[in-house]
Design a protein that fits this description.
Elements (H helix, E strand, L loop, with lengths): L1 E5 L4 H12 L3 E6 L6 H10 L7 E5 L5 H10 L4 E4 L6 H6 L1 H21 L4 E7 L22 H19 L3 E7 L1 E3 L18 H9 L6 E4 L11 E2 L1 E3 H16 L5 E6 L5 E2 H12 L5 E4 L14 H7 L7 H14 L7
Parallel strand pairs: 1-2, 1-4, 2-3, 4-5, 5-6, 6-11, 7-10, 8-13
Antiparallel strand pairs: 9-12
This protein binds uridine-diphosphate-N-acetylglucosamine (UD1).
Length: about 350
C-alpha cells in the first residue's frame, strides 16, 4: 500500500513510519514542522531500506486544503494515518480556539480530500485523554467519555466526526487511544525531541540522570494509589508503532466501520516506580522532591487491552525496563534532541 502519514516527523509518527516501511509499505510523510524537526525525517530515512519501499516527504500544513489536495493528486494513496495535531494540554487550556481550529480543521480537510479521491482507510491518533479520570480500572473502550481539557475534547470530537463520515461514506477507520507513549527506537537514532516537549515525566527523569537537570519534581504523593504518586500506563513507542501497522492490516482486510481501541500495556506504573527503574537502568541516583499536585492531573489510569488483542491481534511486548533503557539510549546519544 501507499500510506500517507500526517505528522510524520513527530514522535509517534516517525516511529510508525519506520514500522510501516519495515512492513513493506510505501510511505508519503507530510508535516509542517510546527512541533517537529526535519531531522526526524532524515533519521527515519537513515534507518529505512530504500530497496524495500519508498519513503517520500512533502512539507504541508493540513490546514491548507489546496496543498493537501496536491499531495493526493501526486500520489495514488491507499490509506492515511493521521497524527498531525497540537498536543500540549496546558496550551489547549490557554488557547482553545487555536487548538479546535487546528485539530478539527486539519481533520476536516483531510476527510474531505480522502472522500474526493476515494481513499477509504484511516487510522487516527487518539488519546486516553478522551476518558478523563476513569471511574473504574482498567479503563475499557465503553467507559464514559469525559475529557477534562480542550486538547482531550478535540480528540473526542475528531473521533465523533470520523464515525459520522464513516456512516455515510465508503470510509473505514480505527481510532487508537494511546496511553502514555515513552521509549525510542532501539538504534538510539530516533526518539522524542526534547525541544518539542516536554512536561512528561520520563524525559525529565532522564535529564536528571544525565546531569542536565537537578531534580524531578514529583507532582503529589497524596493520591489514592499504592505509594501516593500518580499512576500511568506507559507504552513503548515501538509497540505503539506496531499497533498502527496491525490497524492498517485490519482495515485492508475489509473492516467496514469506525471503532476506537485502547493502546496501552495494561499495567500501571507510579512516578516513584518509574524513578526506581530509571535509577537501575541508568546506574545513577535520581534526586527528586515532592511538591503539590499539577493542576488537571488525574490520580491513576491504565488500559483494558482485550479489544486490542482480539480486534488487532496486538499486545505490548516491551516492558517498563525496555522503555526506560531505549529512551535512555536515545537521550544519552542526543541529549539536545534533533540538533544539527
Ligand atoms: C501527559 C499529557 C497528555 C499526554 C500524555 C502522554 C498533560 C497534563 N498531559 O499526560 O496530554 O497525552 O502526557 O504523552 O500534560 N509527573 C511528575 N513530575 C513531572 C511530570 C509528571 O510527578 O515533572 C507525574 C504526573 O503527575 C503523572 C505522571 O508523572 O502522574 C505522568 O505525567 P506525564 O508524563 O506528564 O503524563 P500525563 O500526565 O499522563
Amino acid at each position: 500500500m501507499t500510506v500517507l502519514v500526517t505528522g510524520g516527523a513527530g514522535y509517534v509518527g516517525s516511529h510508525t513510519a519506520l514500522a510501516l516501511h519495515e512492513a513493506g509499505h510505501d510511505i508519503v510523510l507530510v508535516d509542517n514542522f510546527a512541533n517537529s524537526s526535519p531531522m526526524a525525517v532524515d533519521a527515519t530515512r537513515a534507518l529505512a531500506k530504500p530497496e524495500v519501499a519508498r519513503l517520500d516527504f512533502v512539507e504541508v500544513d493540513l490546514c491548507d486544503a489546496e496543498a493537501l489536495a496536491n499531495v493526493f493528486k501526486k500520489y495514488r494513496l491507499s490509506a492515511v494515518i493521521h497524527f498531525a495535531a497540537h498536543k500540549a494540554v496546558a496550551d489547549s487550556v490557554n488557547e482553545p480556539v487555536r487548538y479546535y481550529q487546528n485539530n478539527l480543521g486539519s481533520l476536516l480537510n483531510l476527510l474531505e480530500v480522502m472522500v474526493e479521491f476515494g481513499v477509504g482507510i484511516l487510522v487516527y491518533s487518539s488519546s486516553c485523554m478522551v476518558y478523563g479520570q476513569p471511574l473504574a480500572l482498567p479503563v475499557t473502550e465503553l467507559a464514559p467519555l469525559k475529557p477534562a481539557n480542550p486538547y482531550g475534547r478535540t480528540k473526542l470530537m475528531c473521533e465523533q466526526v470520523i464515525a459520522d463520515v464513516c456512516a455515510v461514506q465508503p470510509l473505514a477507520a480505527i481510532c487508537l487511544r494511546y496511553f502514555n507513549p515513552v521509549g525510542a527506537h532501539p538504534s538510539g537514532c530516533l526518539g522524542e525531541d526534547p525541544n518539542q516537549t516536554s512536561n512528561n515525566l520520563l524525559p525529565l527523569v532522564l535529564q536528571v540522570a544525565s546531569g542536565r537537570r537537578e531534580k524531578v519534581l514529583v507532582f503529589g504523593d497524596d493520591y489514592d494509589t499504592a505509594d501516593g504518586s500518580g499512576v500511568r500506563d506507559y507504552v513503548h513507542v515501538v509497540d505503539l508503532a506496531e499497533a498502527h501497522v496491525l490497524a492498517l492490516d485490519r482495515l485492508a482486510a475489509g473492516y467496514q466501520d469506525a471503532i476506537s481501541v485502547n493502546v496501552g500495556s495494561g499495567f500501571g506504573t507510579s512516578v516513584f516506580e518509574l524513578i526506581d527503574v530509571a535509577e537501575r537502568v541508568c546506574g545513577v541516583p535520581i534526586s527528586f522532591e515532592v511538591c503539590g499536585r499539577r493542576s488537571g492531573d488525574i490520580a491513576k489510569t491504565w488500559a483494558a487491552t482485550d479489544l486490542a488483542a482480539e480486534f488487532l491481534g496486538w499486545r505490548a511486548k516491551r516492558d517498563v525496563n525496555d522503555m526506560v533503557a531505549d529512551h535512555w539510549r536515545w537521550h544519552s546519544r542526543n541529549p539536545d534532541g534533533y540538533v544539527a
